Structure formats: structure tokens, C-alpha cells
Amino acid sequence: QVQLQESGPGLVKPSETLFLTCAVSGYSISSGYYWGWIRQPPGKGPEWIGSVHHSGSTYYNPSLKSRVIVSVDTSKNQFSLKLTSVTAADTAVYYCARHFALTTPPGWFDPWGQGTLVTVSS
Amino acid sequence: DIVMTQSPDSLAVSLGERATINCKSSQSVLDSSNNNNYLAWYQQKPGQPPKLLIYWASTRESGVPDRFSGSGSGTDFTLTISSLQAEDVALYYCQQYYSTPLTFGGGTKVEIK
After folding, report:
1. How many CB pairs under 8 A join A and B?
2. Which of A106, B50, B82, B113 has the smallest set of CB atoms within 10 Å of its CB?
3. Nearest CA to B97 among A40, A106, A5?
4. Using one digit for the tens of pLDDT, what is the confidence trace for A19-57?
5. Are B2 and B25 in contact (CB under 8 A)?
6. pLDDT means over runs of 10, chain B (113 residues)
7. Which residue is closest to A111 within chain B, CA to CA?
């Protein structure tokens, strides 16, 4: 059974960098699929941030691309999100998820981690 | 970007009755080369992450009760709960994966009348 768990600071100051990690258990990242990050501001729908393949191939949301890096560490079976120059608008619950790659671009997300709330505030 | 618009924002349905949620995309998500609609549906209960219900617009994920069904093609899609159960109270989202950026609808809240 694939499980994902996000970790990282819950509070980030404006203009600083947000860094989150997603640990995957029950499945080897190197075996396939893309692995994605999605965020959900309070009371709003989800927003896709970006996804990475174990080969290093990535897809990014153009609205965030200039500030985002999604990377993978196969030795630790985890992947990470780096978001620079954060503002209050980046306050959200951040989820990691397995991203099915039967299509180009990759398709649906399943399963999702429990999510972690990141607040941007001084 | 493909904009996904869901309606209604919320609906209240009696237990055992049918619930219907609509999702409209700003452009077609049908790939005519394979006749597949690049659309998924998710259920999100309070305090939980979204859970995949349906992909390819109408293929139920393993373990999802058969009271959930997806239909539609092109730009207009529907998620139907044929007989609402108490555990179906949740937010429901559609998502297109036809092109990047992948986009989600704003959500529909289903409650018990």
C-alpha cells in the first residue's frame, strides 16, 4: 500500500523559501510514475504546482514555474518542493501525491499525502 | 489554461436520493485520436486529502462504490451519486489532465437534506 507523508516547516516568513519533503513508503519511486505537489488555499480548490519523474523529468505550472523546483531523491525514496520568494498568497495546505503517467502530461493523482499547512507570515 | 467550472456550488439531497454534480471545461478535454476524455473526479471529506473516485471521465477507481458514476464528453461532465449515503457528505472536485497546467474545478459541497 503506497503511503506519502509531507514534512517541513509550518511557518515561513515573506520573501523566504519554502521547502517541503514527501517521503514515500510501500512503493519505490524508481519503479515509475510521476510524483506531484498540489496545494489548496483555505476554502478553495486544489492548485497543481509541479511533478517529477525519477529520471528527473519535470512538469510545472507556468504560474509558479519561475519560483518552483521539484526534485527527487531515489536513494531516500522521497521527493521535494522548493518555492522561493513566498508571499501570503502562498499560504495553503500542501499535498504530495503519486501522479499517474499513462498520459502526456501525466494524469490523475492517487494516493495523496495527508497534507501540511504552510502559513506565510512575519 | 483550461478553466473547470463546477455547478452547483452546493446541494442538499435526502438520504437514498440521487445527487448530480456538473463540471464544464473551457475547452474540450476529449482526445479524438483515442476517444478518451482526460477528466478525473475526487472526493474530499473534512480534514482529509482528496480521494480519487473516477478517471477517464467514467472509469471508477478500484474500491469506489458503484453508486458513484461519471459521464459526459468533450466539455460537459457529470458525477452522479445514485443513492446518497451519509458517508458521501463531502466536497467533490473535477480535474482535467488534457493539457498543462493541470486544473481543478472550484468544488461542489454535498450535504444531507
Report:
1. 61
2. B113
3. A106
4. 999 999 999 999 989 999 999 999 999 999 999 999 999
5. yes
6. 97 98 98 95 96 98 97 98 98 97 97 97
7. B51
